[in-house]
Automatic annotation (TrEMBL):
Any Pfam family: Peptidase_M14
InterPro entries: M14A_act_pep (IPR003146), Peptidase_M14 (IPR000834)
Protein name: Zinc carboxypeptidase A 1
Residues in Peptidase M14 domain copies: 117-402
GO biological process, one term: proteolysis
CC cofactor: Zn(2+)
Domain of life: Eukaryota
Single GO MF annotation: metallocarboxypeptidase activity
Signal peptide residue numbers: 1-16
Organism of provenance: Parnassius apollo
Family: Belongs to the peptidase M14 family.
Lineage, opening ranks: Eukaryota, Metazoa, Ecdysozoa, Arthropoda, Hexapoda
Keyword Transcription assigned: no
């Protein structure tokens, strides 16, 4: 059995020094039997020195796991002893994290954002100011609580509305960048479908719902997941992606404040989820759809995570989703699974999409898990723009297919 050295976050939280992950190894573990799966679940539950980027849930579903250098040999031996296959994706994830930031260059915001690398919250919010100044007939700034800033794109007010969100997980740098690409296309692009979409619907878009966690991931702990509110003793943060009032705490989360998937004391325990939910309440029955974006896994999740049953207009959304993911695959052959989280992912409950579907029942609700299934949070920057492009194509396809079957 492993001789675990429990990594203490206490020093991290009080130090201004940036945490490094030198020689931490990223594995893609492949459980092929129920016995394999149960062993990997026991690692996830009990062995804290391993960092699971995905929750072990089903046989043959790859699990992304990071091991520190001192545990690598024993981890590999334990897997080999049980005949569990694995691939080493990266032997040193710090090198990948360095490459994610070293390509950044000082930009003139008047020339817009770049979608060839990851963006910071300061760059995004500064760009929002630029859009509001230069496209004031289309773009206005919106706010949902402290430092949660977005844009409303509207060419004629009073229409049905879409909500788009990203950045609920601090370590997820991809979804905010994908969401700003969507904003750019809707507000300034020359794509005729995008123009039609911004004329037919109002778009309320928040790229980063977890600004404190996102900034902490940029500045201090690259793999920080939660928000930054003090919770218990020396622990900080709640997993916002599981803090919404829909089957809260049923599956996929932790009640331990020290865990990265800690769900909080109750639904809407966090200021971020409360303030954003209040904002969505102001749209109410006028809500035509909500699309939530996060990394990673290449899945389109349809409500509801707690059930495999086809609830509400599930069949319509599966039809739309599969056709839209076909459109997504055209450019780069990126393949997505479509279904409920319980059927095609880990069944984690308490999501914004499930809450919005239950609360308002708009026809279009889904959660994108963006690229990819291998690199996880180390996704190279050369995959950022392709991810933006294919995701935007699929968004236009969702609108197109929804109209085709007469639910929009």
């Amino acid at each position: 059995m492993f001789n675990f050295l429990i990594l203490s976050l206490c020093c991290i939280l009080v130090s201004s020094e940036k945490v490094r992950y030198d020689n931490f190894t990223l594995y893609n573990v492949q459980p092929a039997t129920e016995r394999h799966l149960q062993f990997i679940k026991s690692l996830h539950k009990n062995w804290e020195i391993l960092d699971f980027w995905s929750i072990p849930s089903t046989i043959m579903d790859h699990v992304s796991v990071v091991s520190p250098p001192q545990s690598r040999k024993e981890f590999e031996q334990e897997l080999a002893k049980r005949g569990i296959n694995y691939d080493i994706v990266l032997e040193n994830i710090q090198q990948a994290f360095d490459e994610q930031t070293q390509t950044r260059s000082k930009r003139n915001i008047d020339n817009g954002l770049y979608w060839t690398n990851y963006q910071t919250i300061d760059e995004i919010y500064e760009w929002f100011e630029y859009l509001a100044r230069n496209y004031s007939n289309v773009v206005s700034l919106i706010h949902a609580g402290r430092n949660i800033t977005g844009v409303k794109i509207s060419r004629q007010s009073g229409k049905r509305a879409f909500i788009i969100d990203g950045g609920q997980v601090g370590a997820d740098w991809l979804s905010p960048t994908v969401v700003t690409y969507i904003i750019n296309q809707l507000a300034t692009g020359d794509d005729p479908e995008a123009r039609a979409a911004s004329e037919e619907f109002d778009w309320h878009i928040f790229p980063i719902l977890n600004p404190d966690g996102h900034q902490f991931s940029q500045d201090s702990v690259r793999l920080w997941m939660k928000n930054r509110r003090p919770t218990s003793g020396t622990t900080f943060g709640v997993d916002l992606a599981k803090n919404w009032n829909s089957q809260w705490g049923v599956s996929g989360g932790s009640y331990n404040p020290a865990d990265s998937n800690y769900i909080g004391l109750g639904p809407f325990s966090e200021p971020e989820t409360r303030s954003v939910s209040r904002y969505i309440e102001t749209i109410g029955s006028n809500l035509a759809g909500l699309l939530s974006f996060r990394a990673f896994g290449q899945r389109l999740l349809i409500p509801f995570a707690h059930s495999s049953d086809p609830l509400y207009n599930y069949q319509d959304m599966v039809t739309i989703g599969r056709r839209a993911m076909g459109s997504l695959a055209v450019k780069y052959d990126t393949q997505y699974l479509v279904g409920t989280s319980k059927n095609v992912h880990d069944g984690s409950t308490g999501s914004i999409a499930d809450w919005a579907k239950h609360r308002f029942n708009p026809p279009i609700v889904a959660t994108y898990q963006l690229r990819d299934r291998t690199w996880g949070y180390t996704l190279p920057v050369n995959q950022v723009l392709p991810s933006c492009e294919e995701t935007f194509d699929s968004l236009m396809a969702i609108l197109r297919e929804a109209k085709f079957i007469n639910i929009l």
